Each structure stands twice: as structure tokens, then as C-alpha cells.
Amino acid sequence: MKNIKIVNFLVCLMLTMPLISVAQSYELPEHTSFKMPNGLTVYLMEQSDVPVISVSVTLPGGAIYDGDQGGLASLTASALKHGTQNYTKSELDENLDFVGASLNTYAGKETAGLSAKFASKDQEEVLKLIKEVILNPAFEVEEFKKEKKRVLVSLEKEKESPRSVIGDFFNKMLYGDHVYGNKTKGFKSTVSTLTIDDVKDFYKAHYLPNNAAISIVGDFSTKAMQKKISKLFAHWKAGEISEDLSKQLIPKPKETRVLLVNKGDAKETTFYVGSRGISRNNPDYVAIEVINTLFGGRFTSMLNDELRVNSGLTYGAGSKFRTYKYGGSFNISTFTATETTEAAIDKTLDVLDKLLKSGIDEESLISAKNYVKGSFPTDYETTTQLADLLTDMFWFDFDQSFINNFEKNVDALTLKKANQIIKEYFPAKHLQFVLIGKSEVIKTIAKKYGKLIEVDIKSEPVSAY
Amino acid sequence: MNTLAFSQIEAEAVETFTLDNGMKFLVVEDFSIPNANMYLFYRVGSRNEHQGITGLSHFFEHMMFNGSKKYGPKLFDQTMEYNGGSNNAYTTKDVTVYSDWFPASATEVIFDLESDRIADLSIDPKMVESERGVVLSERRTGLENSPWRSLGQAVQATAFQEHPYHWPVIGYEDDMKHWTQQNLEQYFETYYAPNNCVVVISGAVEADEIKRLAKQYMEPIPAQPDPPEIFLTEPPQNGERRITVQKDVASPYMMIAYRTPETKDEDYYALDILSSLLTNGKSSRLYKSLVDNQLAAGVFVNFGFSFDPSLFSIYVVTNADVTTETVEEKIYAEIDKIKVSGITDQELQKVKNQKLMEFYKQVETIDGKSNNIGAYELYFGDYKKMFDAPAHFNKVTIEDIQRVAKTYFTKSNRTVGVLKTDVEE
What we know:
The complex is a heterodimer. By secondary structure, chain A is an alpha+beta fold. Chain A is globular, with a radius of gyration of 23 Å. Chain A contains 17 helices and 12 strands. Chain A has 2 domains: 32-246, Cytochrome Bc1 Complex, Chain A, domain 1 (2-Layer Sandwich), CATH 3.30.830.10; 252-456, CATH 3.30.830.10. Chain A has helices at 72-79, 89-98, 123-135, 141-157, 162-175, 188-191, 196-206, 222-232, 285-296, 302-310, 341-358, 362-375, 383-396, 401-404, 406-411, 415-425, 439-447; strands spanning 32-35, 41-46, 52-59, 102-107, 112-119, 213-218, 257-262, 268-276, 317-323, 328-337, 432-437, 451-456. The longest helix of chain A has 18 residues, at 341-358. By secondary structure, chain B is α+β, with helices and mostly antiparallel strands. Chain B folds into 2 domains: 3-217, CATH 3.30.830.10; 241-420, CATH 3.30.830.10. In chain B, β9 (296-302) and β10 (310-318) form a beta hairpin.
């Protein structure tokens, strides 16, 4: 494969092309929204190209509410599917599988949610099951024990892959004890103590309609669907919303640190270099995305060009701003053979330094703008993508002008502003490094970059480093 | 079934034409978003290699981005991205596929880029060396991050002893370090010919305009003699094969792979249904018997498309306190149940319903349309088979399921691989 899918990719000086701007208007399809008496916000959007319907539910029940019970939000979300007052777990599984429907419940960092997709002819049946899962979960203890064991096994298994765990180590380095450092799946030490009563309590406290949204996108009639949803969720009782601890201040890195994570049998070093980022509602969000595209967000980006194309040190290098409601992170990510670790880290820092010192030029900026505009519509093509967009609009509190004015906002970014944004948002000091690899070989290299902290990959990033 | 009531998802939505040089085009007009894509399917994969040049098809995939006559090194990607487009590519045992995604207004630029590299690729020795480092990193990172990679390669090499499916698509590390300039030049000439390529385009484009651009940009590229046929066939397997691999893991990984026929074989549909029946969803037979019963952390089947007879592979991650023998026996017990008692009408109908949903998801995006239409054209010999798939699945009977289970799921037809920490025990 040419590019790895999970890393976001990479600079570019277009000397052969005239300065052209790609223009293609894309507008959010029509939709309606309303708020039910219990506070549930409902979004409906008709899309009839294919006879399917997607549903997305979002509510504030993510890992930021775990406290010291890491993994509780996630286990609660999974337990919703362990049977309900009116369906056993196997009836639920069989009914969904029989019509080829998918219905998943999950917890992320900030929110918990449900995501479903099914044929429109099966809407009566599946919507009923969605309601059952959210409103009437039975929390059967035997199923809970089985799920807990599956989670404990997967927590062991994820240690086999540096790529699966590096983000968790990085988050703990960066956020420390702030709730954004909470690991969604939890730890062996915390998950093993969780009980069914913990799950029931978490559900009672967080699964409330008054700060929740449901979006339904697909082949249906809005009028009929409005009636159906109003009836299905009428008995969901509002309650008191918990305090959102993520509003607390995120500590600022005070020194450059290197977390060296030993993986004894490693043949390569996987690493992140980063710092604090931005929140989703940052007014410069679009501009930052355009610049990150140039720096590490596409194949020809500065990072991929230097680390992959020019030097063959890696299969891929990129960078990303990960945004939450009240904060976020920025990180560069790549990997290289153990013996080229130093060369790859040095080049990574050179590229960052170049961005900070020299900024970008007009040609590159046009290219990046064209690129983000050109791929934008493909992010909102399926019923599932559109349903997720609507619940994201709810959670992050942005409206359709984000979609409808996207091109305009991208075009409005001037070179002067772009270079200001680089200085403001890309980290120049106190970088946080995480290196996963063979410690005995790369330790002396790691020390060079900052204050060294050593752990083993089998360790759990439970408390701040 | 009312699948044919939707204009976007019927075979008539595809327009086809073939240029004088043998390059075939399949075009789907779809104006739902202002974007389009171009997929180029070349009939070349690791199947066309031999020991000494293993991995070359995949490496060539990378070299196609490293400069041609008009667009020198880096300019393919830079030009595409400047025009709002992006791309990727993948190589399998059988095919190499290039995909471009772009605003429909950039269609002509994409034709210019693609035709330049098919007609006049330059293979710069400097680029060859840096790209060699890239694919070595790709191989290494695959092995580093997934135990399935090592186990899958070992099982494949054991199940196929003569046929080219014996080696991994990425290649042997030593071959990767020794491909020569001449290997690459010869590969280009043999396989990168317009007559060895099917092009699929979907999106906000008009078929007539695509035809005009195809004639202008692609038709002048001369056809080449057909590539040599792959005459190696794998001799029948006459006994169970077993293989063990060492890697430090929390609990063992296991694969059970049965030899099965190529995609064009009439048993494809029954086998594919069987694969869903075993592991698709929480009500599937192996999920219930293994995962629900706490014997395994996960189980899935891989039964993909292939030009030549290949494998139906069951993958299991066992739980730490369970032996692989216990899990293996459970799997055979479930397979035997199907051989002896068949399956229920309800189960068969369930998988057919799931297949219809799968089809809807395939045609929901312009990307899914192109990728799937092209794959059906190559592996089934006709893109129309994609639109007929729900009907073909509907024809499968319980007797068919039982028959294919008995035919292929035998002890002497399987290869069993186990990856674990302690291989001396």
C-alpha cells in the first residue's frame, strides 16, 4: 500500500502550475431539528439515494467522568447491549443480525453514544431496539462479568502493538491529571475492580436526555419520523447534569520531557513529539487545519516529504491536532528502524524548526487550500457521516455555517495570517516526546532531547509522569 | 427484493467502452457530491513474481509515484494535491490498484497525470534507493504491530508449496534488498500496458466527457503483448499441515486455513455465506461458541477474492487460560454440526439479509462503487456480477451450504498455524 491509513499525511512547491484556486460549492443538505419536552435534541435529514438509515446518539458519558474508576464509562456503554427489560442479550443480537443491522454503543473521551445503520424497511424494529438499549438496559450481571474479562484480555493484547498504546502514554504525559488524560478503555488495575453496581450508578448519573442529541439520516419521511421519535423517547426522564470537569485548566508543559517506553523485542522505534493543541471551537480551527495539512496532513507534507520521500527513513510521517470541547493536543507521529532512531528524530525537529523559522509561502498555501476544499465533500457523503456531523454540531456547538462557509473561510486565510498562526499554535519549546522501542539501544539517544522518564510497555499510564 | 428499484444501484448505471489499445473503461455518473474518483486496476500482483523478485509488484506500486516524463520526481503527488486531489494504491496477490480522489473539475489533470506515468515512467536509481527504505519500513512496521502478519505469512507459505501464493505480497526481506533496475524496467514493460488495465471512474462527471478524455490521453499509448500466463498450480493437499511461530504475546493466536477454489468458481457464494454464518455478528456460530463462552477474545474469517484457488481462513485469538487445543476442537465441532445437520432457514435468511446491507454500503459512496465495480470486473470477469450478487446469494440453499462444508472443510485440506510465546512446551 502506498500510504498507511491511520497516520495522517503530507510540502510542496508548485512551480509548474499557475496559481489556481479550486472552487466547488458544497452545502449541508436540508434538515430539521427540534427539542423534546425532556430536553432531547432531535435532528432529521432525508437522504434517499440508498434505502438505508443511520442513527447517531450522543450524550455526556465519556471517560472524563470515570474518576479513579478508569474504564467505567466504556464498560457502561458496552453493557447497554447486554439485554433490556424486554429483550435478552441473545434476542437483541439475533434480531439485529437477522436484518443485517449494526447497532453499537461506545464511550469516547468526552461523550458516550450509539451508532446504528439498517435498511429503511426495518426501521420500526430497529428504532424500537435503539430505544430499548438506551432507556431500558437490564445490566445483567453474568454478561457484565464476561464483558469485563474480554476488556481485561484486550488490555493485555494492546501492549503487543506500539501503535495501539502510544496515544495513551502521550495523553498522560501531556494532560497529567486533567480528565483529558483519562484512558477510555481503562487499565487492568481499575477495570478489575469495577462492579455491576458501578455501571448502574454511572448509567443513572449520565444517561439523561437533557444534554443529549439523536440524529437520524436516510431514507424516511421527516413528518412520520418526527412522530415516531417523539413517541419512542417521550418517557426518557430528564435529570441533573454532572459538572463537566474538562473545563478545568490544562497544565502547560514546563520543560521538555522524553518518555522512553521499553519494548524489549522491538525492531523499530515508534514516536510522538507534541504539545498542547486547540479546542474544537477555536476561531482559527479551519486555518490551523489548512496549515497542518501542509506540515503533516497529506502525502506531500513537509514531514512526509523529508522523512519518507527524501530519506526513506519511514513508511509515513504526519501530524495532527486532536480537538476536544475545551482543549486538545498536537502531535507529530512516525516510526523508523531502531538503528535510524536518532536520524529520524533529528529530521523531525528540523522540519518543525523550519516551519517555525521560515513559515510557508503563497504557493504552498494555495495548494493546501485546494487540497482541503477538494476533499471536504467526501467527508459528508454517507448517511453515517451526516448523522455523526449533526451530533458533532450539537456537542461542539457549531452550526451549518461551518459546512456552508467552509470554502469561504478557507479562501479567507491570507499568507500573513497563516504565518501568524504558525507562531501561535505550533509548539516551539517544551516539547513532549514518547518513544516506544528497545530501550537498551536508544536510551542514550532519548536522553539527548529532554528530561528522561523510563517505563516498560507493560506498565499502565495511570498517574501523571 | 426491491434492489433494482434504485437507479444508482443497478448495472445500467455503468457505461462501458474499450479504447483501441485495449484499455477498458467503466463509468458511473453520480452527482451527489461535486467529486469524482479514478481507479486503475492492473492485472499484476505477487502471483506474477518468482523467488528472487518477491515483493516487486508492491515495490512497483510505490515506484509509480516517483516520476515520469512530463511530471518528474514528486510532481505526480504535488500536482494532484495542488488540484485538490489525493491518492493511494494497494497491491494484492493478484492485482495492483491505484486510486485518485478529486474535485470533478480536476478530471483532466488526473488523466494527464495517469497517462504520463503509464506511457513514460522514469525509474530514477536515486528514487529506487530511498523507496527501498520506505517499503522495508512498511514491512517492519507491519510485523511490529500485528502478530497476524507473521502468522499469516507462515500459514500461507505452508498451505502453498509450489504456487506463487507461497510468498507474502510485501516480499522476502533479502529479495527486497536486491531488486535491480533491470527487474523494474522489465516489470513496467510487461505489466503496465493499457491492455492490462481496467479503469473505473465514478462521480460528478459525464460519460461522454470521460470518453473524450480517454481517447485524448490514453488511446495513444501503445498496447503490449499479453503478459505470460501463470501456469503453476498448487498440487492437491493430501494431509493436514501444521506450523508454529514464536512471538512474545499475551495469549496464542491461531489460524485454520482450508484450501478453497478461486472466486469464479460456482461454490464462491455458498462459501461466502458460510463465512458470514460462522463469524459475522454476535449471533454467529463461532462467536457464540468461542467468544461468548469465554474461550476466545475474538474470531473472524477471511475469505477474499482471488484469481487462483486460495484459502478460507479462520482467525482466533485465544484467551490466556484456555489451550489452543480446546479452541481448535470447538471449531471443528461447530463445522461438523454444519456438515451433519446443516443450518436453519432462519440462519440462511439472516445471512442473505446481511448481504443486502453489505451491498447497500458498497454503493453508498462513489468510492465504494468504483472499488467494487472494478473488483467484480477483474475477479468475476464481469462488473455486472456485483449488481447480481444479492440475487446470487439468494439462490444458495441449505444443501449447498452443507455440500461445500463437506467438500472443503476436511482435515487433509487444512493448514493450522499457532503463534505463541513458548514454542518449546
